[in-house]
Design a protein that fits this description.
Radius of gyration: 19 Å
Strand order of the largest sheet: 5-1-2-3-4-6
Structural class: alpha+beta
Strand content: 25-35%
Largest sheet: 6 strands, mixed
Amino acid sequence: MDALIPFTTSGSLVDLVDKKVLVVLRDGRKLTGVLRSYDQFANFLLESTVERLHYKFEYSDVDIGVLLIRGENVVALGEIDLIAEDNLPFVEIPLDEMRDKLAAQEKRRERDNIVKDKVLGSLGFVSDRHEGDAY
C-alpha cells in the first residue's frame, strides 16, 4: 500500500537524474544542465551547466561546467523537453551584446523605480526595495 503513495520528498527527484533540467534560483538566475546527483536537502550536482541570459526574444549562454547548487537557493526545478527546446523562437546573440542590453534595462528599471517611489511616497506609501528573502 505504501508503494502507491507518491514521493513528496527529495526521493521524487530520482526520475530526473541523468536528464537535462532547468533550475531557477532565488536570485533570478536560470541554469540548465544535466542533473547528476542530489541529496536529502535537495542540493543538486549539475554537469554541463549553462546560465541562460534573456532579453525579449534574444538569449546568450554562459558556460559554467560542473556546479553544486545548495538546495535552499532553488525556487524551481523541471525537466527540459529536448524536442520542444529546439522549436523555441529565440535568437542567440553574443554575450557582450546581451550584457549591454541587460545593463541598459537595469538602468531603465532603476530610473522607473525612483519615479514610482517619489509618487507613492507623496501618497504616504513606504518603499521597501531591497534584496531579501523573497521566497
